[in-house]
Amino acid sequence: MGDSVARLAVIEGEFHWHQHDREDEFFFVLEGELLVDLEGRTVELGPRQGVVVPAGVPHRPRAPERTVVLMFEKETVVATGDRERAPE
């Protein structure tokens, strides 16, 4: 839609800490469980739950089991982030 895309991912395991400097990212779980680590807290998502990670916020998605996630983001988003970044 417009300059946004929907991406479907099947994931298991941990992604690295990263951030998107200019774009928000929305995660919506279809199956499984997704943990989104943010600075100082973790958001736990089950099926039919979602979260928006605002631009510039370091985050690390991880799935303890096979998880199907729908992500909505600007088409300019680089999946690995604009840069790797550990939480402060």
How is this structure best described in words?
This protein is mainly beta and 88 residues long. It has a single domain, classed as Jelly Rolls (Sandwich), CATH 2.60.120.10. Helix content is 0%, strand content 59%. The chain has strands at 4-14, 18-19, 25-31, 34-38, 41-45, 50-53, 59-74, 83-84. Strands 1, 3, 4, 5, 6 and 7 form a 6-stranded antiparallel beta sheet that branches. Strands 2-8 form a two-stranded antiparallel ribbon. Strand 4 and strand 5 (41-45) form a beta hairpin. It is globular and about 30 Å long. The termini are far apart.
Largest sheet: 6 strands, antiparallel
Instruction: Please give the share of residues in helix.
Output: under 10%
CATH architecture type: Sandwich
Give the DSSP E fraction (strand runs of 2 or more residues): over 45%
Distance between the termini: 34 Å
Backbone structural class: mainly beta
Number of domains: 1
Q: Report mean pLDDT, rounded to a whole number.
A: 87
Shape: globular
The CATH homologous superfamily is termed: Jelly Rolls
List low-pLDDT spans.
none
Count every helix, treating DSSP H or I runs of 4 or more residues as helices.
0
